[in-house]
Amino acid sequence: MDYARADAKDYARANLTGIWAAALTPFTDDLRLDEDGFRHNVRHWSEDLGIAGLFVSGKQGEFFSMSLDERKRSLELAVEAAGGGAQTMMSCSDQNLDVALDLARHAQDAGADYIVVHAPTLHFATEHDDTVYRYYETISEAVDIGIALWSHPDSGYLMSPGLCDRLADLDNVVAIKYSVPRPLYAELTARASDRIAVSTASEEEWLDNILELDWKLYLCSSPPYLLQTAADRRMHDYTQAALAGDAAAARRISESLNPVREALKRTRPPEKPHAHQKYWQKLLGQVGGRVRPPLLELTDAEKAATRAAFEQCGLLA
User: Residues 172-203, buried b or exposed e (16+ Cβ, 10 A)?
Assistant: First the structure.
């Protein structure tokens, strides 16, 4: 952490920008954490693809199948492998608040730049704003590190723009990954972007959000390293064109990625997003590895269909 708690918002405004990616976690054939493979991926993402930051051990990273020690170790590996070339954000999401706080303190001590915490699942509640506010307030008071909120339908509810606006006043709340319909995140941008960075995980909406909402942060999912190679950085290129104000060039570059987007979507089995993305990683020369049970692996037929689509999508190796 290179800033004091009182400076968290200013630091994030200057540094929490650009394209961030949510890391998949590679597991070996015997389902251990593949430390060397993870290091390889992190270096490739930061050095070859120019990804600005990494979201570690979130839902893409299968945190739900990892032990507490493995989650902590994955953060340490990311900080080590990034080596200052990319920033890091540790997912501290957990239904147990003590676990979330333990992970948050570890992230702060291990050198992460920020943490992200998913809105908790609330059982039997019909109203939730005050409970969720107190949840995040408790975490905010326990650590100095900058906190990104995360609202997603998986929680069973969506945090309202009004609640997020209240939370934006907490000293070290610096961003939100707001996985909601566009009207909601557009409203929150208008209300709270003076205090927090608002973003969402949809790559297909990213260009419009730069041009129409003046966003500077993509936070985040796997497209930054699934749609790009060291020789073909079109997501990076259209982002830079849009940020420079060249909307026509940005749209032209972005639209050229449609065959890649379509190949990914068309071949992804509904129950196997993690396994499918890991196999696509393998085709790209990254380390994909196994998924942990109860997640399902691809069949040979699914792999063959994915490989054929990959080879025809126009992504340069």
Answer: bbbbbbbbbeeebbbbbbebbbebbbbbbbeb
